């Protein structure tokens, strides 16, 4: 080997180790960055010697696709569970202490006490108080349902804005990748940024990514709507100012196509937006219908009639127009009756009423079943008590059994919610585990392993030392030649 060849070899080694050291140092600096994909300097050997020809990136498209799918599913399931937990908390937590079902049972017990002591003013007042608690629990539950819907609607508006912003950023990142690819520059940083945005987008809506010529990428939702193709597509949803029973929330449109709501406790939703639609437009309205069915039945059971005319008795309600509601006769749900049901002031002592009117069946003023004012009269109380446990027909719109007693229906309503929440929680545990496995598999292939990087750094150091020794040897040879020449 000539001295010039040796010098070229040393120079090549120094250049290679410098680039390799830079790559390894960058890897080590980003060891804890989950959005960073490991780089590696690729060395090729030719007649001109060894040289770094490219910086490769540990890209794993199949694992990335699996991670994005798992992330979308987990984001949707966690959003669903969060909403159900919020509703459960509003109803009293683990034992649903403040739910209509619990208060209906307490009212039924108070009515039983009153019917066994029909001359007791204390028992009468206790029954009226229990009825007020029941009405308030229905009001509060209805408010909680509509609050959940309003909260979901607000989250949808926020996340739609976020998604549009992410798609705008994605356009810049995608253009950077295309530009670097076209010019032959290192695309690693641009690809990292684009994948980072992909992960954020996937948590909002399920996506399918397609890589085209020049590393260009197009994005589609899991339902096939175009999210990004050369330019971002518009994602829109008009917020609804106020939610009451019967209010329909506005759809989310992606490139003019409505996004569907998720279905089932183990939701088929991909991304939090579909789960929010499921909470707002499916779960909450169904539970509201169940509450309205309970309230409607209470008004019907405790209504009073003289044979030709019927009027609300113990329980009254207000129509959306503000007028006092009549005794419901329809088998269909009455939107919002649970929000306005209350106890007739004719039996409330603090309002100047007489609680004994419940015993006598004279609350509405159209009849008096105890015209003789018999203190032991219990026929009406017996009839009302038995009516609570008698089977009746409920609307099929509420999503649970249609042929039950009111007490059983109220219990089944809570059972429906708890079963939904429990199944959703189990599913969330599974999606979290799946996401964890996908993330680990992706990280193992593309993440930075400090032990490997440090070992590689030692190898680079040895190469550098070898080149240094060769340079010293060449220096000594040249010095010897100069000494001979002089």
UniProtKB/TrEMBL annotation:
It comes from the Bacteria. Residues 96-304 form the Flagellar hook-associated protein FlgK helical domain. It is found in: Bacterial flagellum; Secreted. Keywords: Bacterial flagellum, Cell projection, Cilium, Flagellum, Secreted. The keyword rRNA-binding does not apply. InterPro entries: Flg_bb/hook_C_dom (IPR010930), FlgK (IPR002371), FlgK_helical (IPR053927). The keyword Transcription regulation does not apply. Coiled coil: none annotated. GO terms for molecular function: structural molecule activity. Residues 443-483 form the Flagellar basal-body/hook protein C-terminal domain. One of its GO terms (biological process) is bacterial-type flagellum assembly. One of its GO terms (cellular component) is bacterial-type flagellum hook. Its main location: other. Belongs to the flagella basal body rod proteins family. NCBIfam families: flgK_ends. This is Flagellar hook-associated protein 1.
């Amino acid at each position: 080997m000539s001295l010039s060849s040796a010098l070229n070899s040393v120079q090549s080694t120094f250049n290679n180790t410098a680039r390799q050291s830079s790559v390894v140092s960058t890897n080590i600096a980003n060891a804890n960055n989950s959005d960073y994909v490991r780089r590696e300097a690729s060395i090729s050997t030719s007649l001109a010697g060894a040289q770094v020809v490219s910086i490769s990136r540990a890209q794993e498209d199949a694992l990335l696709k699996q991670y994005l799918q798992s992330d979308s599913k987990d984001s949707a399931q966690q959003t669903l569970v969060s909403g159900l937990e919020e509703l459960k908390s509003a109803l009293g937590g683990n034992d649903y202490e403040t739910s209509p079902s619990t208060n209906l049972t307490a009212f039924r017990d108070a009515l039983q006490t009153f019917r066994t002591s029909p001359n007791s003013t204390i028992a009468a007042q206790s029954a009226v108080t229990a009825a007020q608690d029941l009405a308030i629990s229905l009001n509060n539950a209805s408010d909680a349902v509509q609050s959940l819907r309003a909260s979901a609607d607000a989250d949808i508006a926020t996340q739609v804005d976020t998604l549009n912003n992410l798609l705008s950023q994605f356009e810049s990142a995608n253009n950077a990748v295309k530009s670097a690819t076209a010019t032959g520059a290192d695309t690693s940083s641009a690809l990292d940024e684009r994948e980072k945005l992909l992960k954020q987008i996937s948590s909002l809506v399920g996506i399918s990514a397609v890589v085209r010529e020049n590393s260009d990428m197009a994005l589609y939702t899991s339902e096939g709507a175009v999210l990004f193709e050369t330019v971002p597509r518009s994602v829109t949803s008009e917020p609804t100012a106020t939610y009451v029973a019967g209010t329909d929330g506005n759809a989310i449109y992606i490139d003019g196509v409505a996004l569907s709501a998720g279905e089932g406790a183990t939701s088929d939703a991909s991304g939090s937006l579909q789960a929010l639609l499921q909470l707002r437009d499916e779960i909450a309205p169904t539970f509201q219908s169940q509450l309205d069915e309970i309230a409607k039945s209470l008004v019907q059971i405790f209504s009073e009639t003289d044979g030709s005319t019927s009027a609300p008795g113990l329980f009254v309600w207000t129509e959306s127009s503000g007028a006092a509601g009549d005794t419901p006769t329809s088998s269909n749900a009455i939107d919002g009756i649970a929000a306005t049901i209350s106890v007739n002031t004719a039996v409330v002592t603090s309002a100047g009423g007489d609680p004994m009117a419940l015993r006598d069946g004279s609350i509405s003023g159209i009849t008096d079943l105890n015209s003789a004012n018999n203190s032991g009269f219990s026929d009406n109380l017996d009839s009302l008590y038995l009516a609570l446990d008698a089977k009746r027909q409920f609307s099929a719109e509420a999503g649970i059994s249609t042929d039950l007693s009111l007490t059983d229906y109220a219990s089944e309503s809570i059972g429906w919610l708890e079963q939904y929440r429990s199944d959703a929680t189990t599913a969330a545990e599974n999606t979290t585990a799946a996401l964890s496995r996908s993330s680990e598999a992706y990280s193992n292939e593309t993440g930075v392993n400090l032990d490997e990087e440090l070992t590689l750094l030692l190898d680079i150091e040895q190469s550098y030392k070898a080149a240094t020794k060769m340079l010293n040897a060449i220096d000594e040879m040249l010095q010897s030649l100069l000494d001979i020449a002089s």
